[in-house]
Amino acid sequence: MAIAEASWNLSVQPPVAPMLATLAGDSVPSDPGLAFEPKWDGFRAIAFRSGERVCLQGRGGDDLAYAFPEVVSALRRALPYRIVLDGEVVILRHGVLDFPALGARLRPRSESSSILRLAEETPAIFIAFDILALGDRSLIDEMYADRRATLEGLAWESPDVRLTPMTSDHAEAVRWFHEFEGGGLDGLIAKATDAPYQPGKRTLLKVKHRRTLDAVVAGWRPHAKNPDEVASLLLGLYDGHGRLHHVGAASGFPAARRHEVTESLRPLRLDDDADHPWRGEGGDVRRPGGVNRWNRGRAQAWHALTPVQVAEVAYDQFEGDRLRHVATWLRWRPDRSPESCTYDQRPIDSPIDITAVLGIPGA
Questions:
Q1: Which single residue of 183, 191, 268, 306 has CA 20 to 30 Å from 148?
Q2: Is the peptide bond before 267 cis (omega within 30 degrees of 0)?
Q3: Is the pTM of this model over 0.70?
Q4: Within 222-317, where are the H helices?
Q5: Are residues 122 and 178 in the same domain?
C-alpha cells in the first residue's frame, strides 16, 4: 500500500529513498574512517513517527505497517513522538534470524485475521541503524558519526525496538564478520563516518561471505527471451541416504557463455516422461518448480537433466538445507562424481545468540 500523501509533522517527509550499499567483496576493508555494523537479514524499512501516526516505508516505497501491527505498536511505545529512523524489520526465533518466517508475514491486506495471528505467533522487531530526523531537526546532511551519537542518546529499553551494534575497530569487525554468521547474519555494512545520509545513493559498502560448492546439475530453467537456452542451472546435493535434493539455482552467464552451457547440456536433456529423482511424488526429497514467496504464486517451469554433471558454484550462505540466494556458476568439475556432492560441504557455523548481540533485556 502506498504511503498516505497527507503531510507529516516531520522535518523529513515520506517517502525517502533508502541509502544503499555496493558489494565490497568478502574481506573486511581496513580503510580509515569506516564504521561497521552487522548486515541484518530482514526487510529494510524507514520508520516515520509523528504522534500516533506510524509508517514503515519498505524499500519499494510501500507502507508495510499493515503487515507488522506489533512493530507499529512497539514503535509507538518506544520512540519519541517525532522521529524518522532507518532500519530493518526482522524475526528472531531461538536467538537466530528467521527470514522464511519473515517472508510469510507479507499477506494481502484482506487477510487481516491471518496478519493478526502471525503477529502473535511470529512477532517481528525493529532494529535501527540510522536516524534522519528528530523533532524539528533534520539529520540527513549531518555526518554519520553525529547521527550515530544522536541515536545512542535515545532510550533503547524496549526489547522490540533495538539499536544495532557498531564498531570502528577493524579487528572487532573481522570477529563480528565470522562470529555473527552463526546467528543468521550475512555479513557487515561499512559506513564512512564523515558522510551525510544520501538517499538512493550506493555509498555504503557491504561485505558478504562467499564460498564455493560442488553440486550436481540435475535440471535447468529456460531463458525468457529464448526458451531453448539455459537461464539458470538447478543444483542438487545428496543426503546421507543417497537421495538427491534440490538446493537452489546458479546463473550469471554472459550471452556467449550461456550458449556454451546450453550446448554442453543438450545431450543430457530428458524427455518429460523419463525417470528423474525430482519427478513424481514419493521419495521424500526437495524438488524444484513449486510455488514460493519469490515467484509470487506462480510455479516455475523447469526441465530435467540426467544428473551426471557437476558444477562448482559460488554462494553466500545456506538457509536450512537450501541456498539462501541464487549462486554463481564458476566452472564444470569433470573430476568430481555426482555421488560425492553431499551436504557435508556445508560449513558448520558456531551458534551465536543474536538477542545477546542486540542486548535485549532478559536475553
A1: 183
A2: no
A3: yes
A4: 255-265
A5: yes
pLDDT tens-digit map of 342-357: 999 988 777 889 999 9
Distance, in Å, from the CA atom of 338 to the CA atom of 306, rounded to the nearest integer, reads: 11
The residue segments making up the domain with residue 144 are 20-209
pLDDT tens digits along 187-199: 999 999 999 999 9
**Structural domain count, the chain:** 2
Cα angle, residue 42 at apex, residues 321 and 11 outer, rounded to 5°? 175
One domain for residues 256 and 168: no
Copy the grid coordinates of residue 292. 514460493
- Catalytic residues, which ones? 39
Question: Are residue 318 and residue 173 in the same domain, yes or no?
Answer: no
For residue 124, count other CB atoms closer than 10 A to its CB: 27
Give the CA distances from residue 341 to residues 79, 143, 192, 244, in Å, rounded to whole numbers and listed in that order.
50, 49, 42, 9
CB atoms near residue 113 (< 10 Å)? 9
